[in-house]
Design a protein that fits this description.
nine-stranded mixed sheet; elongated; binds zinc ion
C-alpha cells in the first residue's frame, strides 16, 4: 500500500471556486442539471482537468470523462468521480467533493511525476440529483444500462415539460458523441460526504462504505366502514384509521427491532372521507423499509404483513398490503472495500465501516465494475441544504484515502 499525501489546501480552493458558480445567499449552491450554471461548472472542471494534462471525452448522456494515461494505456481505467449538479437549495460538497477529489488525485500524481500502470479517469455524471429531471442518477443509470439511452434523453423538465434532457444537453453544449456505456472500467471509487450523522458522532474522519441499503416500498389500503361519529357505539365500529394507526406503530417498532441499520418510515397517509364527525372508512398509507441485509429485509416484510393482518382482524377491517418497489441491497466489491480500509490504515486515519443510506452513482456502477465508496463526515449530518458543511481536514483525509486506494488498483497490487 502506498502512503502518499494530497494537497488539502488546493482541494479546498477548488471546492470553493466551484461553489462560486450558482452560489446562493445562505452559502449554498444551486446548479440544477443542464442549466447554464451546470454548464459553467462543467467547463470549469474541464479547464482544470485539461490543465492537469487530461484528455476529455463526453458521451451522449453528457457524462464527462477526464483521462490521465497509464504506462500501459491499453488497460481499463481506474475511475473515480461523482456529480456537479446540485439540489435547488443544495450545498457546496454533495457531489462536487467527489469530482474535485478526483482532480486532486490527478494533480498529486502530476506533482510526484507518478506514472500509474493503468490509466486514471475522473467522471462527472449527468443529473445525479434528479431534481430538475427525474429520476435521479440518470447519467450513471444510462451508462450502466439501468435506463435505455433514448428514454433517458426524453426525460422532461419537472417544471417545463417542453424541455427534454436531450435538448437541454444540446443547448448547453454537452451532448457528446461517445457511445454511452461502451467504456470498460477496471474499478470505480466515489468519495462523498456522508449526508448523515454517524461519522461525526463517532468522531471519525473516514467511513469505509461496504454497500448501499436495500429498499422495499409498500402501499397499504385499510378498509372498514364509514359511520356517524355520534350514534355508533364503540364496540360496533370498524374504524380504518384505528387499524392503520396500529399498523403504523408496528412499522416503527419493526424499524427499532432491527437497529441499528434498519429504517422504517410511513411518510404519506390519506384518510377517507377525512371528515371530523365520520368514522374513517378507508386509509391509504405508504411504507419505506431499508436495510443493507436482504435476509433482514425479508424478515421485516414478514413482520409487516403479520402486524397488518393482526391489526385488521382485531378491528374487523380488510388490509391490502401491496409491494410497490423493491431495490435489493448493493454490497460493494470486497476487494475494493478492503483497498479503502487499508488506505485509511496506512494513513493512520480512524475509520469505521458504514452503509450508505442514500442513492449514489456508485450504486449503479457496482453493477458493471468493482466499486467502493469513501465517506467523510459533514457538519451536523446535514445535506441537501444550503448550510451543508464539511471540515477541510476530513475532506483532505478522504481524498488521501481515495488516492492510495486508486493506486492500489491502478498498479495492480490489490
Ligand atoms: Zn451526491
Amino acid at each position: 500500500m502506498t502512503n502518499l499525501k494530497i494537497d488539502g489546501d488546493r482541494l479546498w480552493q477548488s471546492l470553493m471556486e466551484m461553489a462560486k458558480i450558482g452560489a446562493t445567499e445562505k452559502g449554498g449552491n444551486c446548479r440544477l442539471a443542464l442549466t447554464d450554471l451546470d454548464s459553467q461548472g462543467r467547463a470549469l472542471f474541464i479547464g482544470w482537468a485539461k490543465a492537469a494534462g487530461c484528455t476529455i471525452g463526453v458521451d451522449r448522456m453528457g457524462n464527462i470523462f477526464a483521462r490521465r494515461p497509464g504506462r500501459n494505456d491499453a488497460l481499463s481505467p481506474v475511475l473515480t468521480g461523482s456529480h456537479l449538479d446540485t439540489q435547488p437549495t443544495g450545498g457546496k460538497f454533495d457531489g462536487a467533493y467527489g469530482v474535485m477529489a478526483g482532480l486532486e488525485v490527478v494533480r498529486t500524481l502530476n506533482d510526484l511525476g507518478y506514472e500509474t500502470e493503468a490509466p486514471i479517469e475522473i467522471v462527472a455524471w449527468t443529473n445525479e440529483e434528479g431534481s430538475r429531471f427525474s429520476p435521479a442518477m440518470v447519467g450513471s443509470g444510462a451508462f450502466t444500462g439501468v435506463f435505455a439511452l433514448d428514454v433517458a434523453l426524453a426525460t422532461r423538465d419537472n417544471n417545463a415539460a417542453e424541455l427534454t434532457l436531450g435538448a437541454e444537453l444540446q443547448r448547453i453544449g454537452f451532448a457528446g458523441d461517445a457511445p454511452v456505456g461502451e467504456h470498460p472500467v477496471a474499478a470505480y471509487f466515489e468519495a462523498h460526504i456522508e449526508q448523515g450523522p454517524i461519522l461525526e458522532a463517532a468522531g471519525l474522519p473516514i467511513g469505509v462504505v461496504t454497500g448501499a441499503q436495500g429498499q422495499r416500498w409498500y402501499e397499504i389500503t385499510v378498509t372498514g366502514q364509514e359511520a356517524h361519529a355520534g350514534p355508533t357505539p364503540m364496540p360496533r365500529r370498524r374504524d380504518a384509521l384505528v387499524g392503520a394507526a396500529r399498523m403504523i406503530d408496528a412499522v416503527n417498532r419493526i424499524g427499532h427491532a432491527h437497529a441499528p441499520y434498519a429504517c422504517a418510515t410511513v411518510g404519506f397517509v390519506q384518510v377517507s372521507p377525512n371528515s371530523r364527525n365520520t368514522i374513517p372508512g378507508r386509509v391509504f398509507f405508504t411504507v419505506d423499509f431499508r436495510h443493507p441485509d436482504n435476509d433482514v429485509l425479508t424478515r421485516m416484510d414478514r413482520e409487516l404483513r403479520a402486524a397488518c393482518t393482526e391489526a385488521a382482524a382485531t378491528q374487523q377491517l380488510a388490509a391490502e398490503v401491496k409491494e410497490f418497489w423493491y431495490f435489493p441491497p448493493t454490497p460493494f466489491d470486497a476487494r475494493m472495500v478492503a483497498a479503502v480500509r487499508e488506505a485509511a490504515k496506512a494513513q493512520d486515519l480512524p475509520h469505521q465501516d458504514i452503509v450508505s443510506g442514500a442513492g449514489h452513482d456508485a450504486v449503479y456502477m457496482a453493477r458493471v465494475a468493482p466499486t467502493a465508496m469513501i465517506f467523510v463526515p459533514c457538519v451536523g449530518g446535514i445535506s441537501h441544504n444550503e448550510i451543508e458543511d464539511a471540515k477541510p481536514d476530513d475532506l483532505t483525509a478522504g481524498c488521501a484515502v481515495l488516492l492510495n486506494a486508486m493506486l492500489d488498483c491502478a498498479d495492480g497490487a490489490a
